[in-house]
Design goal:
alpha+beta; 4 strands; 47% helix; elongated; 2 helices
Amino acid sequence: MMATTSTRLTRGALFVAGLAAALLSAGAPAMASGTALYCGGGMGPTADIAVRAAIEDAQESARTDGRYSCEAADAPQVFEVFDDPYRGHVFYASVTMNCG
């Protein structure tokens, strides 16, 4: 039995509607939370100063979007460099903040 044009259109419309419903249901929890992730980077002579600078960088980025309440999403990543060509021994840090 051959499918008619109206059957194909109906199947296509149902497929598109089902796909849209699946995408919206998957994205609903993220949209409902009202939070966003911000990554910040910093450097300093100690690991603590580098982490603090990275947190301030992420918070400042969030403030430009009107988000003022932030908390750490992951543990900060700290990298120690002994032979930086401009600073010598220095620490770099990266943090991800969940801001709402």
